[in-house]
Amino acid sequence: MDIDVRGPRFGAAVTTVLLAVVLVTGSAWLLAWQTLAFALGAAGGVGRSPYGWLFRTAVRPRIGPPREFEAPEPPRFAQAVGLVFAGLGLVGYTFGPDWLGLAATGAALAAAFLNAGFGYCLGCEMYLFMRRLTVRAG
């Protein structure tokens, strides 16, 4: 079942703000929360993430029904990519080295910002590229 394209973009906006706060404060706790949010989105799809729930219950009823839909697999893969970077950042902030926390969190922030600000989902594009490669190889 396809998903409302606005949901993942809303989640990316929340993620952008949260990761920016992590970079400014160095809060491993906030990054742990974001890592959990990515894990839930990767495991159950973006609709099962906390930001997906917030979009579905608080935002979507106020902005009306969707006009555009997308397949759920690319955003779910993007959540898994975000999980890897947030996990690496969490390791860096918690155990060191500090540069790992900063670099991994910064990379996740850049990807989230691209999606939130411009509607360009880097993880989704990675998913589609990998699909094209496997179709050609198979």
Question: How are the SSEs placed, and which strands pair?
Answer:
Layout (H helix, E strand, L loop, with lengths): L2 E2 L1 H20 L2 H17 L5 H14 L5 E2 L2 H23 L2 H21 L3 H16 L1
Antiparallel strand pairs: 1-2
Helix pairs in contact: 1-2, 1-3, 1-5, 2-4, 4-5, 4-6
The number of distinct helices, counting runs of at least 4 residues, comes to 6
Question: Helix share of residues?
Answer: over 70%
**Shape field:** globular
Measured between the Cα atoms of the first and last residue, the distance is 26 Å
Can you summarize the main beta sheet?
Answer: 2 strands, antiparallel
The rounded Rg comes to 15 Å
Percentage of residues in strands: under 5%
Please list the strands of the largest sheet in the order they lie side by side.
Answer: 1-2
The counted number of beta strands is 2
Q: Runs with pLDDT <50, length 5+?
A: none
Query: Kindly state the mean pLDDT as a whole number?
Result: 97
Which class do the helix and strand fractions yield? mainly alpha
Question: Would you mind describing this structure in some detail?
Answer:
- With 138 residues, this protein is mainly alpha-helical.
- It has a two-stranded antiparallel ribbon with strand order 1-2.
- The protein is globular.
- The two termini are 26 Å apart.
- The protein is built from six helices and two strands.
- The protein has helices at residues 6-25, 28-44, 50-63, 73-95, 98-118, 122-137; strands spanning 3-4, 69-70.
- Helices cover 80% and strands 3% of the residues.
